[in-house]
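Lecture notes, continued. The same structure-token format from the folding unit now serves as the input rather than the output. Read the line below as a description of shape only.
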């Protein structure tokens, strides 16, 4: 972990490059320096059905949820969140310049007693595998 999930309205894919958004957010997560490279995941999913705000067809959204493991200071997570949100705002500047877009980011801390992992990628990237 950290895993960044991007849920977005289907119309956003016509207004923004979702692949570039993912790449930019991955770079931002790495740049924070608080997340292990082997744990970073960035995934994007289009909502099959969505009604945004007042239901206008041109309304779109991107909701980012970053789930992280426990143990990081709140201030460090807030700083990382600001970096990630800044990267999202840069990548989505076009939609944000309209009155028909909503962007959000939430950071959630996973309870270590309720989180299981089996990740050989960690060993490979740390040179221990």
């Amino acid at each position: 972990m950290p895993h960044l999930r991007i849920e977005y309205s289907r119309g956003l894919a016509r207004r923004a490059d979702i692949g570039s958004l993912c790449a930019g957010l991955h770079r931002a997560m790495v740049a924070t320096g608080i997340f292990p490279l082997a744990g970073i995941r960035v995934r994007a999913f289009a909502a099959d059905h969505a009604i945004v705000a007042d239901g206008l067809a041109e309304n779109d959204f991107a909701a980012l949820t970053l789930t992280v493991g426990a143990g990081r200071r709140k201030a460090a997570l807030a700083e990382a969140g600001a970096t990630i949100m800044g990267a999202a705002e840069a990548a989505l500047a076009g939609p944000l310049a309209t009155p028909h877009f909503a962007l959000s980011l939430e950071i959630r801390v996973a309870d270590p007693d309720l989180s299981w992992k089996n990740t050989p990628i960690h060993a490979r990237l740390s040179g221990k595998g």
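Point for the exam: The longest strand covers residues 60-69.
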